[in-house]
Prior knowledge:
Order of helices and strands: HEHEHHEHEHEHEHEHEHHH
Helix content: 40-55%
CATH superfamily: Aldolase class I
Strand content: 5-15%
Radius of gyration: 18 Å
Oligomer: single chain
Low-confidence stretches: 284-289
CATH architecture: Alpha-Beta Barrel
Amino acid sequence: MKKLCASRPLLEAATRAGKAIAALNFYNAETLIAHIRAANALNESIILQTTEATIDYLGLRMIAGMAAAAADQLEQPVALHLDHGSSYDLAARCIDHDYTSVMIDGSRLPFADNCSLTRRVVDLAHSNGVSVEGELGHVGQNTDSGANGNHFFTEPTDAARFVSEAGVDALAVAVGTAHGFYKGEVRLDFARLKEIAAAVPQTPLVLHGGSGISAELLRESIAAGIRKVNFGTEIKNGFTKAVKTSLSSSDDIDLRRTFSPAISAVEEISKSKIQICAQSTVERQTCTS
Length: 289
């Protein structure tokens, strides 16, 4: 039986290839099935993610079992990642339940406190062969007024110090993205992103809030140094819209048939995101030359 792997090797392989890994949130069996089908159709690695809300919904034992089954079905290596872990205790619980990658989000804390919290998680995780993602700067919600102003953006000099002191395997950066639906034009600070990448050349960078960002901007982000892109909102939206259509068009009470179009809808979304992330900068340059 194939096992889940840590996220660091996946991100390092992506770095060598000039690619990124699509990190796909799943919420139930149906969204997980969709991600498995999409990754196998393209023969690419992915990172499967759950938020704390999904952990509350499914439970860690259920998630661990589902992810283990997914790893056995996937053709390429896959990691199970905690997205936006809010505490040391939650990260520890996830590590105890076979997560191979955890994020500890101390981005709202003062710099020193963020470093200290993240370092504690890193020490625990690394002793168990688990990768750790930290966040510096703050990626807020699109519903938060003013939460995504550039005063929340990651500073390159701070990034170098944070990586050195906290010892993270990946760094989530704030360069203009947000969680949820975008209400206007997405503006990413690519100059800042390139400076951050130059400041921490050995640390893969993560872009949160990938849903709703155009393929062109995602590709430019990857070219500038992003190695992991998170997707959640579009997955939930695609699934929910498909279920609503199924329910409104039929009186069928068989949930397997009701959910089938939703699985297909998410599969197509997942494929599109995986494809964008998986095309290397070298391949794109060859295609355009």
